[in-house]
Amino acid sequence: MSTQTLTNETLQAPAASRWRSLVTQESVATVVVSLIVAAAVILPLLVLIVSSFRVLDPGGFDTTWGLDNYRTLYTDRVIPKAFVNTLIVCAGSTLIATFFGVALAWVNARTNCPGRGRMEPFNLVPFFLSPFVGAIAWHNLAGGKVGLINSWGRDFLGMQGNLINVDNLYGVIWVTGLFFAPLVYLFVIGSLRRMDPSLEDSARTTGAGLVRTAMTVTLPLVAPGILSGAIIVFVTTAGEFGVPFKLSAPYGWQTLTTQIFSKAVGDDANIYLGAAMSMALGVITVLLIWIQQRYIAPRSFTTVTGKGFRPNVIDLGGWKWVAFAFNLGFILVAVVLPILCLFIVSLHPVWQSRIILHDLTLHNYVRTLFFWAPDHIAAATNGIYNSFILAFAGATIAMILSLVVSYMIHRTKGFGARLLDFLCVVPVGFPGIVIAMGVLVTYIKTPIYATLWILLLGYITRFFPYGQRNVSSVMLAISEELDQSSRMAGASWFTTLRRITIPLLKPGIFAGWVLLFIIFLRELSISIILYSSGTETLSVGVYYLTNYENDTLTAALSVTQTVMLLACVYIFRRIAGREALTV
Amino acid sequence: MSAMVTLDRLSKNFGAERAVRDVSLSVAQGEFVTLLGPSGCGKTTTLRCIAGLEHPDAGEIRIGRDVVAAPEQGIYLAPEHRNIGMVFQSYAVWPHMTVFDNVAYGLRVRRVRGADIKTRTRRALELVGLEHLAGRYATKLSGGQRQRVALARAIVYEPRVILFDEPLSNLDAKLREQMRVELVRLQQEVGITSVYVTHDQTEALVMSDRVVVMDKGVIQQIGDPHDIYARPRNAFVANFIGATNLLEGVLRGRNGDICDVEIALGESHAPVRIKALGGNVVAGDQRMIVSVRPEDLSIHLQAPDGDGGNVFEGEVIDTVYLGNFLECNVRVGTQEIGVQLDHYMQLRPQQKVFVAFEPDRGLCLTE
Description:
The complex is a heterodimer of chains A (about 575) and B (about 375). Chain A has about 575 residues and is mainly α. Chain A is built from 25 helices and 2 strands.
């Protein structure tokens, strides 16, 4: 309303004052921020598209324009297979993640399963940990020759060969599925928990039994949430680099991400071919995210009522212990066993697939943590240092950007707001590795290449929408009249922002900051493309150790990273309460 | 008329809280019975026990001749096997189905033939005046329309009983009044036994054949609307149904139906002797309460003539103008009495007035 009146007044005002009224704090800030966001988001993608049409000549020095890169995508010996493998992995882990996510959400929200309150936070833990570390842990736990389970099988059960083997595509599917189950869980549990119980009650009184009510009322009502979660898992898996790199690539199963990595950053690097492969990956993910945002998210049903009713809880009878075992089992295989196994491995000088008690040592931690130790490994110690700088600076800058952008989207109207809204969705559609390729081809010839700045740019571009969503959700819940009253009381736009808006948004800003801090602390697929010697990150350190050093050093740094992430989650939950840290 | 719903000493606890205590009630075939009471009085819990959505802890529930719940004998019939219809406060119209599919749901569950589903659903929609919206999704409907869908959904398969859980409380005042009339018309047309829960006394008085007033999980009074209003059994019912003045006093004598009561007005005032209907009060120096409704009191500027009338002398505290009448609060000693007056009356604060009422308009009640 007030903008309407303002515009009318401006139209009637003489030209000079109309010009002056355009140059307000608000509009200047809007334009500047829009330009920054547009440059950060659009430029890398544009350059990526352009680069994918540049063909490197056989000598490797000159480029010509052409479609050869795209032709290579299907004539190459490996890439088409990698493409198929990617689809198999995505489909498989989406199935597993959806199964675990929906089943766990249902058990926790709607049944009388014992110990629900205690287990609930642990169900979310894999979401905050690094899937790459998860893959390393599962490799040590159930890898072909080295796996602890398999060596126990041989030692104690007298078995030949392997009990199970995760060093293949199934292993990739299993580990990614486990780690991304919380994504589906988060999408589903809210609507299960807040659903108006009379929606189900009225099906019962109308004559439908428990099962029929579940199939015709409950399930259709949460279906959009399940589908959204499944699509997000599919897309995230398509962009996942660490798990296939550790579990399947060394044994002959390449995926698109491992191929982009080895073709674009290997010794005979061809970033233009990498750009074309990134385009292929990006087109798939963007399409899926577009479908999710356009057709599925709007179909979510608002089933919440004002009445503070508890949701219907089903008495499982004796089956509640089955549900309990199921939930405990998930926590065991997704959190406890992998971390425990890594910890055991990290205490050995050399890992021989056996626990050797008299050999236990903390020397691996000395070599990976203490940069003053004479035999420290620079990639690891640098990684810790760099990751903290990147996480702290990245989360802070991204949240400032999120704040301003959210403010513009929700508190100003017109074309700029809609453009910004669109720009904030775009990076979500592309896997980190694709954005990283865009940033690489864009800035490779500038001074920021091979510095931490290029990593910072890649991180913020890809992940600031996550922070923005946190701020936006709080901003939408706060009445616009609160800051309009401040303007009425005579405060300027900036004073209002500083004195009214930001203090009100504190919980959202804080939640977003911690989420980004955690994401940046474990980030791999952007870092692996953009790092160079000296700018390793924590996950790159783990990559370096697993590739060039031994299993025990890798395990030590992995445990370190995991402990840091868990500490962040724990501290945050203590400060901000239970429900706060969700996407 | 045979009883359609029978509750026999029904009890339900939530942990230590006794939500429903020994509730016994019989609803006749085709009758419209309302459970009325403040929030937390146990009315909704009673209704949900009838529906089968809550398991009672003791007592028995019969629908028709079937025992549907009797915890002592281990009998509990799931809601879907009770053949009832229910309308919820939040409407609970399924947002993922069209209006037609919502209404047809109960028929499909009952495996009614396809052609019959169509005609019966149409008829139910016509009954609530929504036949033109059959293809619409529930999310595109207004509150009133959703409530009609919920109603059609509950009656389409001709259940034995229909249960209403505060169905009108989410609607705005105008629509609520309109829906009240429509609901009663529909109920009479279909002739279906109805149990209706509300906290709105006007709703209960307007719609019901009988009203059951509940408080703290216990039935306070059962009666037709006139009984409940004119002959409340205790102070709670008198105060909850409509407004009333409750004057504390001591019974000094009883002459047939008329009691002689002494009302204390504090130390500075002499007590006043009045006469009122005896009600359930027995006899002899007993502490009791006289209930007089504001519209049964009159105000006089001079002491009214004649004796035998009940008169208090007091002064005006304030007046509230409500358009169709004037509400006046009068201080009489330590008591405060509300009087409903003709809207032409002019009174100012501190003015000396006399408040009077006829003996047959006051009702003695136990505490």
